[in-house]
Amino acid sequence: MASNLVVVKSGGHHALKAKRTKKLVKIILEDRRRRVIIPSGPKGMTDDLIAAAQESILRGSVTRETYKKVIDKWEELCNDHNLPKSYRSVKNLFDKTLNSYSGQSINLDTLKARRFIDKVAPLGEISQADYILVPLLNRAGLKAISLSPIGLIYGSDEPGNASILPDPNKKLKRKIDELLKEYGVVVLHGYYCSVQNGKRGEIVALPRGGTDTSGGHAAGELGALVYENRSDNSIMRASPKVVQNPLKLDEITYREALELTFMGFGILTDEAIRPCMNKLIPIHVIDDFNGSGITKILRYRKPDGYEVAGVAHKP
Q1: Per-residue pLDDT band at 1 (split at 50, 70, 90)
Q2: Tell me: the pLDDT tens digits for 25-61?
Q3: pTM
Q4: Is 15 within 8 Å of 40 (Cβ atoms)?
Q5: Which of 8, 40, 60, 120 is the residue whose CA sits 20 to 30 A from 216?
Q6: What is the CA angle 105-108-114, rounded to 5?
Q7: Which residues contact 283 (CB under 8 A, 6 or more apart)?
Q8: Distance between CA 55 and CA 51 in Å, rounded?
Q9: Could you tell me which residues come within 8 angstroms of residue 279 by beta carbon, excluding any fewer than 6 positions away?
Q10: Per-residue pLDDT tens digits for 129-146
């Protein structure tokens, strides 16, 4: 089932504007092997959601400014996609989640507060999957369904900083294989998972960049043909913020990519690379917006005439 499967993680820029999400739908339609999609929420949304959660904890309610910042963005997107029911669903989910915190605290570091932040932070990914991408894929003629990782992916009990744990029972693979017998596309929520040995339904968020981690994990579990990481960036030999017009890397090895990641390279997380490296699944980092093409992350690469693959930079 999965040997010919392409897993796609879409970045926050794909969700930022309606025309960009429509471009993503077109990309999915171009290759019917793209059957598992892990979408990011709109770029910048996670910061606003975390701010809303923190305000609810510290003040007892979210400020009007922060609330409007989140809701107005979803209203704009849903209107541009002609999805009025989706807007109501997103708003109801946001309101219900915010109202699930009772009381007020002066401390954001309590376990109760951290668990609440982890409930609110992934709402961008959840809403983009359930109420934007799935309806658009169905409208385009693909039979799509969204899938929560609850009960399928487990992580360490470290709110906001969880690591995905191995699953000897392969629950995620079995569930997706089952769904793909009936559906053309499965849209998987990224950025969070179930708490290992936690209460039923209790979730924990991955570190920032967690949608990449979810995507790499899914690709590894499914034994995907390719893991596509689609964003607005390619892998350059140095940071464009530091070096003017750096050269693009066409190919890089898993180990070189990991070394760059450890030194501050920000496009992929190490936990997104390792599951693919362990199964020798090629990672294609694809720039969908700036014409920079593809960087392939592989076990081996051809010599390209440069002794140094790339330079990562930390201020």
Answers
A1: very low
A2: 999 999 999 999 999 999 999 999 999 999 999 999 9
A3: 0.94
A4: yes
A5: 120
A6: 110
A7: 216, 226, 227, 228, 229, 254, 257, 268, 272, 273, 276, 296, 297
A8: 6
A9: 219, 220, 223
A10: 999 999 999 999 999 999
